[in-house]
Prior knowledge:
The protein has helices at 27-38, 60-70, 85-89, 98-107, 124-127, 141-150, 170-177, 216-223, 264-277, 310-327, 342-353, and strands spanning 16-19, 43-45, 52-56, 79-81, 112-117, 132-136, 154-155, 183-186, 197-200, 206-210, 228-230, 257-261, 284-288, 300-303, 331-335, 358-360. The chain is an alpha/beta fold and 361 residues long.
Amino acid sequence: MILLYMSEVSDVMNTEIVELNEQNIDIEKLMRAAKIIVNLGTVVLPTETVYGLGANALSSTAVKKIFLAKGRPSDNPLIVHVCSVDMMEDLLSEPLDLRAKKLIEAFWPGPLTLVFKRSDKVPVEVCANLDTVAIRMPDHPIALKLIELANVPIAAPSANVSGKPSPTMAEHVIQDMNGRVDMIISADRSRIGVESTVLDISSPKAVVLRPGGVTLEQLQEVLGNDGVMLDNMINGVVDKPRSPGMKYKHYAPNAPLQIVRGNKENILSYIKDKIEKASSAELIGVLCSDETQSEYQGAHVISIGSAHRLDQGASNLFAVLREFDQIGVDMIFAEAFAEDEMGLALMNRLKKAAGFNIVDV
């Protein structure tokens, strides 16, 4: 298992940081990034979900550098990013079926990752020795153009130190990855702000392994209510993950995080009581919605947005968790949110950030 952090590496890399504009891409700068990918180096790239740490998905040597830079366990599979269906089909052991074609037509490019039976061209390091490969086509002009220029699929997990909140802004990436990778592409804030939905279609029943930017309800519109199901371990931890984020604690801030679940009045009462009982030397953080932000006194309170717009809340979550780190709070209490539509992805990430420390009130 690879569990190597930069403190254990003798040489810190000289990371080139380049700024790119999505509306007017500097092809010369992007060609330098593509050359790094071709030469088996590592490049942090923006996508519509979160920033990704990319390397040539067809090279075991390049892929191992991803695990090293992140300190990521080697049994945690990666997602391969492509710029065309033709590029994807070369990675599969079977032709696309009608179900896959419907999903691709409906959601690509976009935040949906599909899991297929893989061909032998995919290194085992990408798939954690599984017989499947996870693939998506990002909906971001810089990411798509980089893949096209490199002319190889790019494996790219989130560009953060393993276990920490995923990066949605260039400054997050620079904090985590400067000195660990060859190049960082700095661009705009990620539009969606949580990782892609991972849907396993390698068997007759389509199974959501990770909720994300495409909701269960949207998938059901394409496949039918009985055509897709949630994996029963989606809110738990598994021994052998079939998708990124299934086994290990993820997205965790530095301070312990507890989720408070129940009706509004009980949640407010519980968190207020914890704030009142905290010592004068203890800084309490509260993660909440716009509707309850003014209810908490004597704590550092950050709203992720309206409880009625959980798509915005999901987009803001990782940045909020990183803000608590910058403040240096000692404990965080988070309100629970509705687990439908984008709330399912939001709560999935929040539960993992808390290590499933949930109290029902």
